[in-house]
Design a protein that fits this description.
This protein is α+β, with helices and mostly antiparallel strands. 28% of the residues lie in helices and 24% in strands. The chain contains 2 helices and 3 strands. It has a 3-stranded antiparallel sheet, covered by helices on one side. The chain starts with 8 loop residues before the first strand and ends in a 9-residue tail after the last strand.
């Protein structure tokens, strides 16, 4: 029987957190290496995340940040 894998811990994170910045930088680098031009990537900078009031959550495994997701409020109570 396979051993159960613990679920990651998910919490609110800050766009200024050094681990969040490292993941954002890693995404930008990966997209650039994949042949995407800067105009074809749509990742936000820390400043854009803050000014757009994006709500971020981060998933941690073993205390290490392994993923980030966010919701950006839009008009009429809708989020993207």
């Amino acid at each position: 029987m396979a051993e159960a894998v613990p679920a990651p811990q998910v919490d609110v994170v800050s766009a200024r957190d050094s681990e969040v910045i490292a993941l954002l930088d890693g995404l930008s680098s990966e997209l650039a290496l994949g042949g995407y031009a800067p105009t074809e990537t749509f990742g936000y900078s820390v400043e854009q995340l803050e000014s757009s009031q994006v709500h971020l959550v981060g998933a941690r495994e073993g205390g290490r940040l392994v993923g980030v997701g966010g919701v950006e409020p839009q008009d009429a109570g809708i989020g993207e």
